[in-house]
Design a protein that fits this description.
Elements (H helix, E strand, L loop, with lengths): L1 E2 L7 E2 L2 H27 L5 H27 L15
Antiparallel strand pairs: 1-2
């Protein structure tokens, strides 16, 4: 985790933490959708449950964007010629 100089004692989440959080939230979304289906079968209003689901999906989208940003910042595999390598 990287240290933010403006927030003492607070560390920014790393990419692995964000990936785990996305997976955890996707599991919650799956459960929420099941609960919405149960409410619909019981003819109970699902407006507030659907609003919660929408907020959850927006949070996942934000985490995915942060994950993608962090992924771009990571150094990629080396490309180009190998110096001092064998020539066949």
């Amino acid at each position: 985790m990287t240290q933010n100089p403006f927030l003492k004692g607070f560390t920014m989440p790393d990419i692995e933490y964000i990936r785990a959080e996305i997976e955890r939230m996707r599991t919650q979304v799956h459960s929420q959708r099941g609960e919405i289906r149960q409410l619909q079968k019981a003819a109970i209003s699902t407006i507030s449950a659907e609003a919660l689901l929408d907020r959850m999906l927006n949070n996942i989208d934000a985490l995915c964007a942060e994950r993608d940003r962090l992924k771009k910042e990571q150094p990629g595999p080396c490309t180009g010629k190998v110096l001092g390598g064998r020539r066949w």
